[in-house]
Design brief:
Residues 1-51, 65-88 are annotated as: Disordered. Pfam families: Pkinase (PF00069). Belongs to the protein kinase superfamily. It is built from 17 helices and nine strands. With 458 residues, it is an alpha+beta fold. Among the domains are: 131-213 and 413-455, Phosphorylase Kinase, domain 1, CATH 3.30.200.20; 219-388, Transferase(Phosphotransferase) domain 1 (Transferase(Phosphotransferase), domain 1), CATH 1.10.510.10. Helix 10 (312-328) runs antiparallel to helix 12 and helix 15 crosses helix 17. The longest helix is centred in the first third of the chain and has 29 residues, at 53-81. Bound molecules: adenosine-5'-triphosphate (ATP) and magnesium ion.
Length: 458
């Protein structure tokens, strides 16, 4: 039910967008999200998801593996008898057999999924996605409402990230609205620098949000292991962040939690992707909002002042904090207690390291302007001298291989025709795919389409 409600496209009656809570307890108490005294951010108490379907699934996977092992034990003891026989040799090593068996099993699962999908399309009622459509693997991370797992989309064999939310946690209206808000917002954005929502489905105990997978870690990890980045590296990353935020703002969406940990790097290190729309929301231009949420070290002074704020400017402030953090390895506002931190932010008191170029210093100052409407706009950022004047050279000693080539994002979307051909190859009727896309429905067919589109594999 939940997933159906969230995934509804415009063909059906679109559900009312949830009104954003005026101010939740969680939002009111800013430290609840994350308090930061450095570039990192201490974790908050999170609800546990240690029971339920995921565990069952993992157990299933483990038991499947165990079955394989038992099977092989049997096979190997039998095989041992024939070790020297030519027939045993022709079977190859046991690991080959194991791999072969796993592949066979996966193939038959894939065929079953395809069969049931195609049959349901024929009968005019597409079956809802279930956990069998994905192979769930290791845990990638832990969020405020649940865990994020690596998943394998069985039909294409492509990797996804699956955010699982325990349904028992979203019983109350406020939390439910927050989770729904995240899905609604992500549904609206389709941009190469923003993690793509693929589909939403549910198991008996969990709501599952399937997302584009970005396997290169996040900027927080990068800055922690690597230290501050060079200005040239910073430019490559930051220019993409500008695009990501612009994609949100043009759809009247504010992110409100721009920070190092919410910027993921793609597996091939060619792109950055904005993620975690947990506190984002749609706004009307000119609307004043009062919600207090975000991560303390990245909070704009007008949020702390608590007299209402013009929404779009708060993301620009957080971008200023983020650029400072990338280039210096630490956040500009640091204090032992939250009231002290608030004081520093309200006074806009921070040190600007001399080692930064004058252009970088200027750009940061323009973003960290205490007067919201005086802050530099996204369009102005793009033509700021930091991007324009400085040489765009080769970073010889970059630890990040692709950054060394001066990449701007090598992302190429696969063409619609190519994907439709591939979908047709799988057996999906083109008309059905076309109609689902047209009405922006979210189901396993459109998820497959979007995954092929972003995977660049065709
Ligand atoms: P919080 O609000 O506490 O930051 P959250 O519930 O909103 O958490 P996310 O930040 O979206 O959850 O995800 C938690 C972690 O899971 C991330 O920090 C990241 O390590 C991992 N993760 C999330 N989405 C992806 C993805 N698409 N690809 C790879 N890893 C991901
Ligand atoms: Mg996060």
């Amino acid at each position: 039910m939940l997933a159906k409600y969230l995934a509804a496209g415009s063909r059906q009656n679109s559900p009312q967008e949830p009104r954003h809570s005026s101010r939740t307890r969680k939002e009111k108490k800013i430290p609840h999200r994350r308090a930061a005294s450095n570039a990192g951010s201490p974790a908050v108490t999170r609800p546990s998801l240690d029971t339920g379907r995921i565990v069952t699934l993992e157990t299933e996977l483990i038991s499947q593996e165990q079955n394989f092992k038992n099977e092989h034990k049997r096979t190997s003891s039998n095989d041992r008898k024939y070790t020297h026989s030519a027939s045993a040799k022709s079977l190859g090593s046991f690991s080959d057999i194991e791999t072969f068996k796993k592949e066979q099993e996966e193939q038959s699962k894939k065929e079953k999924i395809l069969h049931s999908l195609l049959n349901s399309i024929k009968s005019g009622n597409l079956i809802p996605t279930n956990t069998n459509f994905y192979l769930i693997g290791k845990q990638l991370g832990k969020g405020a409402f649940g865990k994020v797992y690596l998943g394998l989309h069985r039909l294409t064999g492509l990797k996804v990230a699956i955010k699982t939310i325990d349904k028992s946690i979203i019983q109350d209206d406020r939390t439910r609205r927050k989770v729904f808000q995240e899905v609604y917002v992500m549904k609206k954005i389709n941009h190469q620098n923003v993690i793509r929502l693929l589909e939403v489905f549910e198991s008996p105990k969990h709501l599952m949000i399937v997302l584009e997978y970005s396997g290169g870690g996040d900027l927080l990890k990068l800055v922690k292991t690597r230290g501050s980045l060079t200005e040239l590296e910073g430019k490559h990353i930051f220019s993409q962040l500008i695009e990501a935020i612009q994609a949100c703002h043009t759809k009247n969406i504010i992110h409100r939690d721009v920070k190092l940990d919410n910027i993921l790097i793609t597996t091939d290190f060619t792109c950055i992707k904005l993620c975690d729309f947990g506190v984002s929301r749609s706004v009307k231009p000119g609307e004043k909002i009062y919600d207090q949420c975000g991560t303390p070290a990245y909070l704009a002074p007008e949020i702390i002042a608590d007299r209402g704020y013009d929404p779009f400017y708060v993301d620009i402030w957080s971008m200023g904090v983020l650029l400072y953090a990338i280039l210096t390895g630490t956040v500009p506002f640091r204090a032992k207690t939250l009231p002290e931190l608030h004081k520093l932010i309200l006074r806009c008191k921070y040190d600007m390291p001399d080692c930064l170029s004058l252009n970088a210093q200027d750009l940061i100052r323009r973003m960290l302007n205490p007067v919201p409407y005086m802050r530099i706009s996204l369009e102005e950022m793009k033509i700021h001298p930091w991007f324009i004047d400085d040489e765009n050279g080769f970073i010889e000693d970059s630890i990040i291989p692709r950054f060394a080539g001066g990449f701007m994002c090598s992302y190429r979307k696969t063409s619609e025709k190519e994907i439709l051909m591939r979908m047709k190859g799988l057996g999906f009727p083109c008309e059905f795919v076309y109609q689902s896309l047209k009405f922006r429905e979210i189901n396993h067919v459109t998820a497959t389409y979007y995954l092929l589109e972003i995977s660049n594999m065709i």
